[in-house]
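Backbone-to-sequence.
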């Protein structure tokens, strides 16, 4: 049978019935890119992926991959490429005793959590429960409890990969260890299709508590100074995000600052102590309102971020990693705080300091603070304006940045090179490995402008 025949109706060439809806469905963002792949393979298993790679070789097509479609730049949708869609790889198989799970790249955060939570286990999946494991883990993966658990990719113990020439290989610490090094952080620069992730999973924290405080924008400098000042001493079990937005807080007079702090603890006492610097701080008196340590049952109840990102709306997203002090960052951010273009648009100031020691892997760049800039709108006429707002404010922060986090892969919109996302050594190794594993550059790699 021909390669096309083997794929049957799972292969859609441009112009086929179903192609356009599959092309649009490949992108979670309501804003769809104009780019048109030559064909789309709606893969159901690893054999389909192998066949797709052989077909791409036969037709001299480049290959792109898509799992959950959350890439802001829609990095998986490329002109003229064969798009291998692995969103149907949704199996989750848990070995409770070994505390491992084998998950498909199409598994969403909410899916893995609904399997693990009843078993008293968890995996630090993305803060939006609809992000899929594929792109999340490849790009590093900063999920719940990231400062204690580290990036999700650090919990990848092995991967099953279909290579550029259509071979299926396992990569781990001892087999194909260079591929294993690359898969943990290469993001859209990876040169293979991951068909399964073998993950270490973690015992669910006994106590999860949330403190949320809504502050007026007038105290922005004070808040940023405080968060920066205590970034290292903030307990590793605390995730801290400061959202500047109008939406979540429903403020009638424009944006306010919602400081969310989340403790993943082994006891109530540990949770209280960890949240104390936020709950008992003198600054707390300046909050418009606050919740001082609400218990939640599990990750599934942490819906604050989901609420910021409903499906169907249009999004532009960029980020900056910085080691600069709040004294330098606060004035640089003030123009963005003052001009957020829609109520749902937001800026998120995240304490990234204090990752646990990480293994040697492609994910290699970090900083004390991650600043995310996000515009959210629903009218296509506003696309250019909303993208410019994000791009311009991210550019304004560049003098204070050490780089960015691949999760928003904004290379294309800001004209950045991959060296903004990796240490020089890691990027050089990644390029060498790409030439080794994919000498014909069958895979499309990063989406550059
Ligand atoms: C609403 C929202 C919330 C987010 N929250 C977080 C968060 O909390 N933490 C965080 O770290 N990031 C977060 N992100 C960023 C997100 O992790 C990345 O955009 C990630 O790439 C999304 O994965 P995906 O599979 O859904 O995307 P896709 O667009 O499907 O994949 C992105 C790229 O990853 C590669 N890829 C995906 N699967 C495979 C595979 N199986 N084999 C080979 N390559 C593959 C491809 O190059 C693809 O272009 C968020 C994004 C959005 C839109």
């Amino acid at each position: 049978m021909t390669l096309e025949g083997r794929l049957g109706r799972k292969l859609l060439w441009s112009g086929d019935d179903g192609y356009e809806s599959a092309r649009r469905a490949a992108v979670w963002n309501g804003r769809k890119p104009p780019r048109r792949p030559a064909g789309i393979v709606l893969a159901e298993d690893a054999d389909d992926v192998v066949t797709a790679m052989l077909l791409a070789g036969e037709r001299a097509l480049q290959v792109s991959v898509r799992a959950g479609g959350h890439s802001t730049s829609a990095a998986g949708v490329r002109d003229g490429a064969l798009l291998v869609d692995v969103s149907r790889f949704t199996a989750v198989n848990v070995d409770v005793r070994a505390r491992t799970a084998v998950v498909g790249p199409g598994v969403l955060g909410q899916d893995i959590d609904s399997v693990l939570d009843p078993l008293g286990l968890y995996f630090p999946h993305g803060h939006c429960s609809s992000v899929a494991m594929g792109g999340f883990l490849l790009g590093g993966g900063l999920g719940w409890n990231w400062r204690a658990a580290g990036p999700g990719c650090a919990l990848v113990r092995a991967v099953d990969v279909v290579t550029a020439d259509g071979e299926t290989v396992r990569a781990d610490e001892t087999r194909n260890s260079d591929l294993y090094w690359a898969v943990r952080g290469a993001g859209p620069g990876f040169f293979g299709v991951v068909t399964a992730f073998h993950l270490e999973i973690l015992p669910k924290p006994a106590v999860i508590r949330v403190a949320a405080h809504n502050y007026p924008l007038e105290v922005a400098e004070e808040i940023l100074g405080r968060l920066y000042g205590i970034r290292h001493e903030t307990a590793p079990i605390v995730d801290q995000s400061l959202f500047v937005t109008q939406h979540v807080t429903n403020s009638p007079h424009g944006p306010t600052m919602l400081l969310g702090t989340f403790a993943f603890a082994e006891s109530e006492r540990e949770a209280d102590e960890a949240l104390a610097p936020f709950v008992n701080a003198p600054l707390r008196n300046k909050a418009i309102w606050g919740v001082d340590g609400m218990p939640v049952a599990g990750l599934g109840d942490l819906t604050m971020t989901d609420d910021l990102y409903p499906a169907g709306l249009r999004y532009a997203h960029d980020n900056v990693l910085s080691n600069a002090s709040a004294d330098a960052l606060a004035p640089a951010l003030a123009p963005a705080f003052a001009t957020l273009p829609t109520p749902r648009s937001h800026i998120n100031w995240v304490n990234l300091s204090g990752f646990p020691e990480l293994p040697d892997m492609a994910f290699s760049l970090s900083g004390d603070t991650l600043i995310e800039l996000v515009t959210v709108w629903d009218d296509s006429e506003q696309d250019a304006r909303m993208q410019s707002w994000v791009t311009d404010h991210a550019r304004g922060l560049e003098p204070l940045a050490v780089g960015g986090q691949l999760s928003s892969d904004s290379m294309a919109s800001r004209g950045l090179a991959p060296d903004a996302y990796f240490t020089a050594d890691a990027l050089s190794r990644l390029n060498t490995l790409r030439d080794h594993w994919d000498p014909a550059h069958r895979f499309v790699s990063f989406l550059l402008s």
